[in-house]
Input
Amino acid sequence: MDKLVIEGGSPLSGTIRIHGAKNAALPILAASLLAEGVHSLHNVPKLLDIETMLNILGRLGCRAVHEGETVTMDTSTLSTSHVPEDLMRQMRSSIFLMGPLLSRFGEVTIYQPGGCAIGERKIDLHLQGLKLLGAEIEESNGRISCRAARLTGSDIHLDYPSVGATENIMMAAATAEGTTTISGAAREPEIQDLQNFLNAMGAQIIGAGTDTITIRGVTKLHPCTYEVIPDRIVAGTVMIAAAATRGSVTLTHTNAGHLTSLIHVLRRAGVQITVCNDIINVSCMGRPRAVERIVTSPYPSFPTDLQSQVMVLLSLADGFSVIKETVFEGRFKHVEEMARMGADISTDLNRAFIRGVQRLYGATVEATDLRAGAALVIAGLAAHGTTVVEQAHHIDRGYDGIELLFQKLGARISRKVPVPGPFDLAN
Ligand code: UD1
Output
């Protein structure tokens, strides 16, 4: 497995362009199945999760080419609504295929995507929503078969604003008969992007970005050309890295409106931030201040996907901070790794108590999941000495070459790819 080797301790500086949003592109790629023909999708980042989704779509019969940041995909050759178990297991986001395939074929067979490193990640809200649209669902031994000759609009209330369930229901309802209302919907910017994409294909959806989304079903959608929004989590990761290294960085191609809660927290920590159109400047000249309390919860509150990264900054702050994680139960795995680097953090069930230290020190640590891995890279950039982040493939799921990104900002970071041994070559 690849490792990242970081010689830390130097401030980041320079300008970086932020790539398109993984969490917007994944449901959009799935939603493109709703309309037969050739779609052209721009600002689609070259990440492991996107390549996995394109592989899955290819195995289902679609023809897709990812050149630069544009995906050209022909969905007219889609040939099956059965997503094999091995493909479902490759990526949790394969669950997004359920709504579009059900809508296109009147049936779909998928498998439980399974648990994951950050928590249980159930799919009950996805299934309840599809049932209310008229799907008959049978589950046995992890295999889930859904059938509906024609989906019909319904009033659906989500007890929790699940991002994925909101998106799956929007996709399934886009061509259902009649009107669907989702109350208690998730409000993330990626949901607005999905609404905009579906409407560009001819859907009639309003309300994304609020907790009530109304979808007037249409009989047919058409392929389209679309540009995905910038990745707010990658932007946030870079902003926190700039602050943690006491550097000065300019981010371009961003949407600061999607980062309000992070900007608020960083300013409370004493980080200077200026925004002009799609450009954000971040600089931090002295030691950051502690932030008394941060609580992760659904948008527009502080994102769980930036929790581990901001914890690195607070581990270097002057004073005592508390972070409460309310979205995923297993999201403190980076804490143990950070302790190896000298951080002073203790946890109870879902709270982390962070006593800021003057310095972190380089160590060998392991990326246990995507965002925890990104946090350890930031810790390595800020630390004195050499840090080795093992299991770097987790980070590749969501960042288009994180080492290249930080190299552009002056960081001394490189990737070590294992040399195959004789047994690997024989196989
Ligand atoms: C999406 C993001 C992920 C982010 C998360 C929360 C994508 C591809 N991924 O994941 O990066 O961390 O939002 O912002 O967009 N839940 C249920 N039942 C369900 C669905 C979810 O109980 O049917 C629970 C989950 O276990 C979790 C919480 O709801 O505790 C949030 O999950 P959800 O909003 O669905 O996140 P994802 O869509 O999986």
Remarks:
- Residues 22-227 form a domain with the UDP-n-acetylglucosamine1-carboxyvinyl-transferase; Chain fold (CATH 3.65.10.10).
- The chain has a mean pLDDT of 95.
- The pocket of uridine-diphosphate-N-acetylglucosamine is lined by residues 23, 26, 93, 119-126, 160, 162-165, 186, 190, 304-305, 327-328 (CB under 6 Å).
